[in-house]
Amino acid sequence: PLSGEGELLTFTVAYVKPASFSHYRDYAIGIAQMREGIRVLAWLDIDDPKKVKPYMKVKLEVVKREPEGFLTYKLVPIK
Question: Which H helix or E strand runs over 61?
């Protein structure tokens, strides 16, 4: 089991999206190193990419993506 807490190592913002994601606004994807040492690639739950900084603390959450209805992960900044 993972604690869910980690540190953002790097991220990118997708301005040009594949057709299957064209209905989403621009989004960010990040890689975080979890407290247990593994690295996770997931969507970043942010409103403003300018506020994201490498090494900021994040929490890993499972979310249901709509309208597709599939489960995925997201990284949420810890304030």
Answer: strand 57-65
Q: Is 48 helix (H, G, I), strand (E, B) or coil?
A: coil
Q: Determine the 3-state secondary structure of 8 from DSSP.
A: strand
Between the alpha carbon of residue 66 and those of residues 8, 48, 70, 72, the distances in Å are: 25, 21, 7, 11
Q: Interior CA angle at 42 toward 70 and 11, to 5°?
A: 145
The residue among 55, 72, 60, 11 whose CA lies nearest residue 36 is: 60
Strand 39-44, strand 5-14: pairing: unpaired
Predicted TM-score (pTM) of the model is: 0.86
pLDDT tens, position by position, 22-43: 888 888 999 999 999 999 999 9
